[in-house]
Backbone:
């Protein structure tokens, strides 16, 4: 386990950073993946997140290796289960699904992978992972057999995040689930951003307008929209260029 905290420091250093989520399950065409990596690099996105709800060990290892060979963007593992781990990543979000009440995703998968992860040379970031209801039945909710928090219930979302911080989590990740109809309301994002740990928001972010509304978060994760339309990365590039100048 790496004691340095490079990626964590980078998360904490700025608001409105962009991560592109790559699900290895959807990467059977490596030429297409290479094109995606080139466009991510061109757009200067801050991170590539890798993970999925139903990824095999082989697909995960193959895709993370391919990404590291073909891009210099930091790779952050966002694992769907205990076998989505690799030293090739720059950091691993050590997720506890604290919106749910399924012990398997609170501690079970963790015990299964603890020995392997303990001996890995990778930055580990203890993360409170909070699933909210983005208006579709998400794969995460189905696979984890947990109930997401209603999207407008600010009190439960905030109290869950606070409980995570009290338990020692270093990062809050609020996810409306991949392909969500709605993302987290901006008002709740603002409240969450006042807590003392960096905030990641994902699920249902499909426009630059949404990115701007959620800019109080440290990192915004975008998956589905790029799968639908890779040229959305050009809009993201424009957003990043304007933000940095
Ligand atoms: C889901 O946060 C991610 O875990 C990304 O969601 O695919 O809806 O962008 P989208």
Residues:
């Amino acid at each position: 386990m790496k004691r340095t905290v490079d990626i964590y420091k980078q998360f904490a250093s700025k608001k409105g950073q962009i991560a592109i989520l790559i699900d290895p399950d959807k990467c059977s065409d490596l030429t297409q993946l290479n094109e995606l990596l080139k466009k991510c690099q061109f757009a200067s996105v801050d991170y590539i997140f890798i993970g999925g709800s139903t990824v095999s060990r082989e697909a995960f290892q193959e895709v993370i290796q391919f990404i590291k060979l073909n891009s210099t963007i930091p790779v952050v593992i966002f694992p769907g289960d205990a076998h989505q781990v690799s030293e090739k990543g720059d950091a691993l979000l050590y997720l506890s699904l604290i919106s749910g009440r399924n012990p398997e995703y609170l501690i079970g998968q963790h015990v299964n992978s603890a020995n392997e992860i303990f001996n890995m040379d990778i930055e580990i970031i203890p993360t409170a992972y909070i699933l909210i209801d983005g208006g579709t039945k998400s794969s995460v909710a189905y696979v984890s057999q947990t109930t997401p928090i209603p999207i407008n219930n600010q009190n439960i979302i905030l109290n869950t995040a606070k409980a995570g911080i009290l338990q020692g989590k270093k990062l809050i990740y609020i996810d409306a689930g991949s392909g969500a109809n709605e993302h987290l309301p901006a008002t709740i994002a603002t409240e969450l951003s006042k807590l003392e740990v960096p905030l990641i928001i994902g699920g249902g972010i499909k426009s630059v307008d949404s990115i701007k509304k959620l800019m109080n978060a440290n990192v915004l994760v975008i998956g589905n929209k790029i799968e639908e339309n890779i040229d959305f990365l050009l809009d993201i590039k424009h957003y990043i260029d304007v933000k940095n100048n």
In short: The CA atoms of residues 53 and 80 lie 5 Å apart.
